[in-house]
Amino acid sequence: VALAPVVPAKPDGAKIFAAMCMSCHAKDGKGRAALAKMFKVADPAVMNLTLAATTKKTDADLAQAILDGRNRMPSYKGKLKDEEISAVVDYIRSLAPAPKASADKKKQGT
């Protein structure tokens, strides 16, 4: 009897985000204003992962920011595996609001 190969479970991006990112970026990804003030972040919007400044970035750009850190954000190089970083990027993508239907689609009733 041949056994099926064991496939490791995909890392849970939400759990990793909760453990590593939520303290600054908040559960909804919109950032914590009090921490931005405490860390003297010039533009608190950088902590909001649901804004276009983040959502327009490529997955590779987001993964690199997680690996290298940015400004007051620590580096997670050596702390998270590639698969975990990918799962966090996927989770960050899920936090962004759904794109709004274009005006043309609204006129057509779709």
Description:
By secondary structure, the chain is mainly α. It contains seven helices and no strands. The protein has helices at 13-20, 22-25, 33-38, 52-55, 59-68, 82-95, 103-108. Helix 1 packs across helix 6 and helix 5 (59-68) crosses helix 6. It is globular. The relative contact order is 0.17.
- End-to-end separation: 53 Å
What is the overall pLDDT average? 88
Specify the oligomeric state: single chain
Helix content: 40-55%
Please provide the ordered H/E string of secondary-structure elements.
Answer: HHHHHHH
Tell me, briefly, the overall form: globular
Uncertain stretches of 5 or more adjacent residues: none
Query: How many whole angstroms does the radius of gyration measure?
Result: 17 Å
Q: How many H/I helical runs? A: 7
Please provide the count of β strands: 0
Q: State which percent range the strand residues make up.
A: under 5%
Please describe the biggest sheet, giving its number of strands, its sense, and whether it closes into a barrel. Answer: none
Keywords:
110 residues; single chain; mainly alpha; globular
In short:
The protein has 7 helices and no strands. The protein has 110 residues and is mainly α.
Layout of strands and helices, then pairs:
Blueprint: H1 13-20, H2 22-25, H3 33-38, H4 52-55, H5 59-68, H6 82-95, H7 103-108
Helix pairs in contact: 1-6, 5-6
